[in-house]
């Protein structure tokens, strides 16, 4: 093993090797260009979250629920056509990437795939 090769930026494996102009990790199969290009790829990039019909969503948008949703602990769910104002985009769990307050239900997270921009 050559001590001068950098570890894998994805899984931190020390068993990396060179293949032409690329560095390769045999454990996770990650390939990258050594040097500055990897630092630019590691920088956080702005996520683009789209609604059910492909419109780009932003913080503060108003959206409309496109299909009826069940809500735990509630005898009735959220009906299709319900407007939700002032959404906030988050890194949620299980694809729930919208944080909002729904009238009659309170604060909750929704998936962008069940709303459309109003």
TrEMBL record:
SUPFAM superfamilies listed in its UniProt record: Prokaryotic SH3-related domain, Zinc beta-ribbon
Domain called Protein YjdM C-terminal: residue spans: 49-118
InterPro entries on file: YjdM, YjdM_C, YjdM_N
Pfam families (UniProt xref): YjdM, Zn_Ribbon_YjdM
Ranges where the Protein YjdM N-terminal domain occurs: 4-32
Gene3D superfamilies noted in UniProt: 2.20.25.10, SH3 Domains
Family note: Belongs to the YjdM family.
Protein name in UniProt: Phosphonoacetate hydrolase
Organism: Streptomyces smaragdinus
Lineage, opening ranks: Bacteria, Bacillati, Actinomycetota, Actinomycetes, Kitasatosporales
